[in-house]
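Why do we care about 3D structure at all? Because function follows from shape, and shape follows, mostly, from sequence. That is the central idea of this module. The next example makes it concrete: a single protein chain, its amino acid sequence, and then its structure expressed as tokens.
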Amino acid sequence: FDNGTGALGSAWNVDTSTKGEVKLSGGGAALMEFASGKEAGHGYGTYTVTAKLDGNQPGPAIILWPGDDKWPGQEIDLAEITPDGSGRHYGTVHWNNGGSDAYAARVYDGVSGGAFHDYQLAWEPGRITFRVDGVEKGVVTEN
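And the structure:
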């Protein structure tokens, strides 16, 4: 982020005043690539995001949104906060199950909020592996 938000052109309530850093805070803050069709989406590979997620309620999330901007769809979440008030983090793979959202989630036990972590997703044919700070936290092979 040496020059604003870079390729992440959809931005709401973000602070880019510190070179190399983008800060999102509050319920209405977001930063994402434009979803402009399947060709705009991503595919197999390794994605790493260094981020700090604060709080104990859902809101902060690191997401690969469907390129065709259709939901429910193939959304992959590198990190979210669990809705149980514990502040735990987790990763999720979503898919369209006949018009309804279906998903497989993996909780990142031992990952504390309020600190920077490297959230990583390794996406291979038939397998998605979630890692935090280089430690495997879960694998999804469904859908």
